[in-house]
């Protein structure tokens, strides 16, 4: 592993994970909290936003890092022996950190509507009912 190559891949995984989580979280916050749309509309808007952002991220970062963007994908690549253990662990660390920072940025964008940058939900779900 060359140092420059691995750093490029790690930065690509970090940024792509961050932007993908931002698209997922911010679209839900925007439609539910700002537009006061129904949950069905919010989920539809979320799916469209994530699909377009995912396509753009794959085009931008696919050649650099392989476009994993998800620790489970990286884990599968490791189990299929397509990447080494150290590289897989580094990818997953950068993906998790990117996801957490993406969540914080999403909530920061709508701070006036959500009230805090990070919070633990107090919603209780019974089965699969919204």
Q: What topology emerges from the helices and strands here?
A:
Blueprint: H1 3-34, H2 39-65, H3 71-79, H4 85-109, H5 111-114
Helix pairs in contact: 1-2, 1-4, 3-4
Explain this structure.
With 130 residues, this protein is mainly alpha-helical. The protein has a single domain (3-114), classed as Up-down Bundle (Glycerol uptake facilitator protein). It has five helices and no strands. The chain has helices spanning 3-34, 39-65, 71-79, 85-109, 111-114. Helix 1 runs antiparallel to helix 2 (39-65), helix 1 (3-34) runs parallel beside helix 4 and helix 3 (71-79) runs antiparallel to helix 4. The N and C termini lie far apart (47 Å). 26% of the residues are buried. The model has no long low-confidence stretch (mean pLDDT 90).
Strand count, sense and barrel status of the largest sheet are:
none
**CATH third-level topology:** Glycerol uptake facilitator protein
Kindly state the number of beta strands: 0
Fraction in helix: over 70%
Task: State the end-to-end CA separation.
Answer: 47 Å
Indicate how many domains the architecture comprises: 1
CATH architecture: Up-down Bundle
What ranges have pLDDT less than 50 throughout 5 or more consecutive residues? none
Assembly of the depicted chains = single chain
What fraction of residues sit in β-strands? under 5%
What's the helix-strand series?
HHHHH
Radius of gyration, rounded?
17 Å
Q: What integer is the average pLDDT?
A: 90
Give a quick summary of the entry.
The chain has 130 residues and is mostly helical.
Which tags fit this structure?
single chain, 130 residues, mainly alpha, Glycerol uptake facilitator protein, 5 helices
């Amino acid at each position: 592993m060359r140092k420059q190559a691995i750093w490029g891949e790690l930065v690509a995984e970090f940024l792509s994970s961050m932007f993908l989580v931002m698209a997922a979280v911010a679209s839900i916050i925007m439609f539910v909290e700002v537009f006061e749309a129904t949950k069905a509309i919010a989920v539809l808007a979320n799916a469209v936003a994530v699909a377009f952002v995912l396509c753009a991220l794959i085009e931008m970062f696919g050649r650099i890092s392989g476009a994993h963007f998800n620790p489970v994908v990286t884990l599968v690549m490791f189990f299929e022996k397509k990447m080494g253990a150290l590289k897989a662990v580094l990818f997953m660390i950068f993906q998790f950190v990117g996801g957490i920072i993406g969540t914080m940025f999403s909530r920061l964008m709508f701070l006036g509507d959500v009230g805090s940058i990070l919070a633990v939900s107090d919603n209780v779900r019974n089965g699969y009912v919204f």
